[in-house]
Amino acid sequence: MLRPDEAKDRCAALLARAKALGADAGDAVYLGKSSQSVEMRLGALEGVDRSEAEHLGLRVFVGKRSATVSSSALDPASLDELAERAVLMARGAPEDPFAGLAPEDMLMQGTPADLDLVSDAPGPEALRQTALEIEDAARAIAGVTNSEGASASYGRGVVALVTSHGFAGAYEQANHSRSGAVVAGQGSGMERGMAWRSAHHGEDLLPPAEIGRLAGSRAVERLNPASMKSGQMPVVFDPRVGRSLIGHLVHAISGSEIARGASFLADCEGHRIFAPGITIADDPLLPRGMRSHPFDGEGLPAAASRLVEDGVLAGWLLDSASARKLGRRPTGHAARGGGGSPGVAASNVTLLPGRESVTDMIADIADGVWVTELIGQGFSVVTGDYSRGASGFRIVDGQVAGPVAGITIAANMKDMFARMRAADDLEIIQAINVPTLRIDGMTVAGD
Fold first, then answer.
1. Which domain of life does this protein belong to (predicted)?
2. Phi, psi of 104, rounded to the nearest 5 degrees
3. Are residues 419 and 443 in the same domain?
4. Domain holding 22: CATH number?
5. Whole-model pTM over 0.90
6. How many domains does the chain have?
7. With a cut of 50, which residues of the chain have pLDDT below it?
8. What pLDDT does 340 receive?
9. How far is residue 349's CA from residue 287's CA, in Å, rounded to a whole number?
10. What pLDDT does 338 receive?
């Protein structure tokens, strides 16, 4: 894997090849990653994996025609072929009036901020011990009957981007992950529980034994689930699944969906879509944040923003192409992989906590459900209709009761956003973070 400066040089050399062959403009991206992981199962070594991968993506423009190509072969002959193929493809592509690089006057200038994304690698023995400790703690929980294994891993990656109109940047990041999954019960009554954490620094993770205890406890808590009657009732979303609701919001306000007229929020910019008090922030410059980055996929500087302010939708997430279609300026939310043109993505998204405790939030619920797992992909970004299989726990007279499974929860996302309440138990541990959420009036289908 190349070092950041080497990766920038490789991208610049690839762009120079394309320009020499007739490209008017372009950009090149390098993505490199190395990783090692250890998996333990039933106290024995299940597997050790080491991998390294490199990828170069090239986008070129010939007038208003463009093409994007990529390769994992980085030798000079392969890069010559990559540049030649890209220019030939661009010449044969249809014209796109919205094609082009990001506005030059918006490119990031100066040295990027240090976001503290790099940390040292643990050795293979340390990874093995971590995985073993996770599994031992999970299997020690009364009621756990089998293990699906525990793993610990470390990875390191480099991202570099160079454009033909003046931007060159690169950064490095590390990733530590720990996970465990076990089974409780016997025969047809078995239930699975898992827990995992990921961070740029190992010290930011839960201790291995705590991850194991979480996995084991979750499996045992789900034993002997019942169904429940159908009806409209409050639904409480555990943060593990509540973050998916904000993921749907991000999808619905991406410029590509708005430009196509394919979002249920297309007419909601500047309007209140959440209850007063709900604020959702996006911060790509969060130190040690899981999706922190100094610049976006087109070379624009990353900057913190509010997606929702006191319930009001602030605007759209725009890359350069969607911004041109909408007659606007990009917002620094371009995301770039190695194999295609930039898309749109948020970074570290956080629904800020409310003022009520979880206990107070559920105190007045006579009959409801606490959802800890969602099944299926039942969401339409066009209409906002939402319907997912779910499992979790009954809420009866303000108390969490026994486990439930085999239910479906449904509503329209606009109504869900408008009725959403946030508790005060926010933890910043993933790319999308939310506290416990309550939504009244959802339709629950059981027996």
1. Bacteria
2. -60, -35
3. yes
4. 3.30.2290.10
5. yes
6. 2
7. none
8. 79
9. 13
10. 76
